Amino acid sequence: MTIYDAPDACTIVDPGNISRLHQLASVKPKKESQPYFQQCSWLSRDGSEGTASVRVSISDLRPREPNAKFPSLPGSGNCPEKVTTTVGTFCQERDRQNIDIMHGNLHVLIYWGTTRLSRTTPEQSRISQAGPVTRQLAEQALKNMPG
Question: What is the mean pLDDT of the chain?
Fold first, then answer.
């Protein structure tokens, strides 16, 4: 398995460049870092647009001791829907608003949502509108992965 250093969780995606998340363009992301984990989140509570949020978490799963083996990887074999694009493969949940990417030793989780979309009915319409946003976020993340 190839070992990578984690990219910055605040620059791996740019939610403000996605039409359904455009109100996040003016939001300064909030970052939280620990030695082998980092998280970045954007939140906008614009009255006319509703609430929109994106959270990106990156975990470095490389072994911490010499000769140690990699732990079992999160989500391995438990992918509700695997999606392959021209830039890579990601896993998405059935609601289309959770993205799971494994890249070498890096585990990236991206969650997003908007009140406008969450109020869309019927469910199939909501899912079809969420799919393109998820794909755009995943492709941004995959393009910005190291290696």
Answer: 87
